[in-house]
Amino acid sequence: MRNFVIFFFSFLLLANLALQLAFTPAPPNSSQSASTPQPDPTPGINYLFSGTQLSSLPQQVSFTYQGLAADITGEIQLIRPYSGGPTGPSPDIAYPTHLRFYFNDFTSISPSQSGWKPHLRIYPVNDYRSIYGADPLQQATPTINNIIDRLQVILVNRPSTFEDDIPFLPPQHNAQIFKAQIKYLDFKNGSGIRFITQHALGGPISNQFIFYSFQGLTSDGQYYVALFYPVSTQILANMDNGSSFNTLADFQSHVQETTQRLNALSANNFTPNLRLLDELTQSLQIIPTP
To answer: Rounded to 10 degrees, what is the CA torsion of 132, 137, 138, 140?
Structure first.
């Protein structure tokens, strides 16, 4: 029997109603997040969040996650302002207030991936574009605008191959060394592109680092959806720390051959099954705040 869990996000300011605000510790290397979980009459099924700085966040978010987690933790991740400059942080350091959902007790992940916790992020597009207002040298703003604008074009034209990286938020320091299992998916009120990839400067493609990504936008353009979920497959060995390639040509050959092998696999040749991840994505509904 499938378990469907719906997460409701309601941000209401009612007169004479006292709203309790609870702060949840943020995951490692991340700023503190604020959330107020109010359980529905059916505990563990519905959650209500209210907090500060919520005018641009969705009113409700729902999705299914059969076979992907024991439960979900939803958070309001508060803004991390940009303080760039000639020696300032790169664009991935800053982000607007947004929603994050963490997949708990994800038993399908291999031990080597234990530090990579699956999560779903929903960003308000306009806030992401404007967060780099304090960017006088325009170091970060073009990066973010280019990612969002390119994704909009890609979702209209739907190319099947890519020479450059597929748009990805948050921005990454390392490139996508390969892109496999590319597929376009529509969700309840938007669309996006899913793929398997690995961000790295080099080294073999490995179960230790590959993951499923979905990058999408709501139909109204208000919200950017980014899903990260580590996957594995038996055709890949976990990375040997001593592995290396003698030449660039050797590495390029490895990437090409491995990508072809990954593209030849069925959804059920991955753990977790890519079908489950696709179903999660396709069930997603994001209702904007009126």
So the answer is: -60
b/e per residue, 85-103, with b = 16+ CB within 10 A?
A: eeeeeebeebbbbbbbbbb
Alpha-carbon distance 170 to 19, whole Å?
31
Check: CB of residue 169 under 8 Å from CB of residue 224.
yes
Q: What is the pLDDT of residues 20-58, one digit of tens each?
A: 322 233 333 334 444 433 333 333 333 344 444 577 899
Angle (CA) 130-131-132 rounded to 5° is 90
Token pair 């949840």 is at which residue?
24
Q: How confident is the model at residue 159 (pLDDT cuts 50, 70, 90)?
A: very high
How far apart, in whole angstroms, are the C-alpha atoms of residue 168 and residue 199? 11
Structure tokens, 8: 């409701």
Structure tokens at 233: 């497959």
CA distance 168 to 12: 31
pTM for the structure as a whole: 0.80
Q: 20-23 — which CB contacts under 8 Å span 24+ positions?
A: 21/50, 21/51, 21/52
Q: Count of alpha carbons within 13 Å of 146, Cβ hemisphere only? A: 11
In whole angstroms, what is the distance from residue 278 CA to residue 272 CA? Answer: 11
CA–CA distance, 132 with 151 (Å, rounded to integer)? 19
Cα separation, 95 vs 80, whole angstroms: 5
Q: Helices (H), strands (E): how many in the chain?
A: 4, 15
Number of neighbouring beta carbons within 10 Å of residue 2? 8
Q: Quick check: 202 and 250 in contact, CB under 8 A?
A: no
- Rounded alpha-carbon distances, angstroms, from residue 153 to 122, 147, 158, 203, 216: 19, 10, 8, 31, 12
